[in-house]
Amino acid sequence: MTIADTKILLLGGGDLASGVACRFFRAGFPVLIVEKEEPLAVRREVAFASAVYRGNMTVEDIEAKLVTDGKECGEVQGEGYIAVTTCENYRNFSPKYNKRVLIDARMFKERPDDIDRDLTDLVIGLGPGFSAGDNVDVVVETSRDHYLGRAIYQGEPAAYTGRPGSILGLSEERVIHAEDDGLFSSGRSIGEHIRRGERLGELAGGSIEAPVGGVIRGLLKPGLQVKAGTKLADIDPRGEEEYAFHISDKALAVGGGALEAVLHCLDIN
Asked: Whole-prediction pTM value?
């Protein structure tokens, strides 16, 4: 089996999953991403999930296109693009998509109950909720510590701490979550500078102010109904606009671990 014949199916198209997708795409693997009908990606400018809303999405120099069936998926991959589809559409053509590798990048942080290891050659899980040799074949560490990006062939990754990565000493302070259910709206843009206390958006008619100053690195798509606890925005206190439009070091490290696992476990020429 060659790299070109080894189809990769990625569940999830957020920023972490998109970093993984880029690693595989640049290595020559055909990639299909399956996302929800209304993705909740916050770092939308580096998330292929945005193709669900836009029809296509370019992350750095790689373009993804939205497809509705298996035939269209094959055509898009053959033309040199990543294919993206929704869960609903994937149900219609999944029997015809002969994937060899399934990567669960949905980042539920708890054990999923919908993974069938018998339907593919290799199943890889990213982060908490997975155990190599149990519900997946390989786990890739996603915790920002010494083992970030490590492929685990037996056992579990670090437990979920609930604490976002620290940037200039700021962790929970720089990430905004919905305090209530409701409609989220915002007139701000990703890559825009914002000062502490400035209006970031509105939720259910109430104002949301920036808890720290910096660059808006991530912002949920305005106009979505959200539940309490949903991540709404991510502010980068370093103030570098370009960071909002590039894949993170974490996503690339995790993508490298997943790529290692595939090459280690499968007989690919």
From this structure: 0.94
**Pair 136, 180 in one domain:** no
* SS3 state at 193: strand
Distance between CA 254 and CA 10 in Å, rounded? 13
Please give the span between the terminal C-alpha atoms of the chain, in angstroms, as a whole number: 6
Rounded CA-CA distance 166/143 in Å is 12
Domain harbouring 232, CATH code? 2.40.50.100
DSSP letters along 9-56, please? EEE--SHHHHHHHHHHHHTT--EEEEE-SS---SSGGG-GGGHHHHSE
**DSSP three-state, residue 178:** coil
Q: d(Cα 41, Cα 182) in Å, to the nearest integer?
A: 17
Contact present, 10 and 62 (Cβ < 8 Å): no
Predicted confidence (pLDDT) per residue in 123-157, tens digit: 999 999 999 999 999 999 999 999 999 999 999 99
Co-location of 72 and 147 in the same domain: yes
88 and 128 fall within a common domain: yes
How many angstroms separate the most distant Cα atoms in the chain?
57
Region of residue 16 (phi > 0: left; psi between -120 and 50: alpha; otherwise: beta): alpha
C-alpha to C-alpha distance for 201 and 207, rounded to whole angstroms: 6
Would you say residue 242 lies in a domain? no
